[in-house]
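Figure 2 data, in text form.
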Amino acid sequence: MKEKIEKAVFGAGCFWGVEESFRKLKGVKSTIVGYMGGKMKNPTYEDVCKDKTGHAEVVLVEYNPEEISYDKLLDIFWKIHDPTQLNRQGLDIGTQYRSIIFYYNEEQKKKAMESKKKQEKSKKYKSKIVTEIIKASEFYKAEDYHQKYLMKRGLNVC
């Protein structure tokens, strides 16, 4: 029997660190860094860094929902970044670093919205959560040198 694989896409700052956070999880079958959410077709890293494409740096996570739930992926997403920083994460500044969840279906949308509300109600953050939740659009794979960037260098974080 073929293994069931689903997709999830998250943007939470520089995609190198985001990928590393998801890559090692049991049930995650693959991670691919890339760009989503903008207008330009086939953007390059240089295009995205100019902050004019509308794309966010994202990680496409392919996972087996029987081994790891979408809810668990959402929990990780909230833990690995500050969702109150608008168009930035730490020293990385620009719309490409925005906090964003792309959903592929109504179930993912519902769970993402519920998880955001849960975070807001937790009072964990002093500022308003600015995370966007929008329908997935075309995913553009980033250049090969960006794939598993930290792993290739023996690093865990940027």
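Caption note: The first strand starts at residue 6 and ends at 12.
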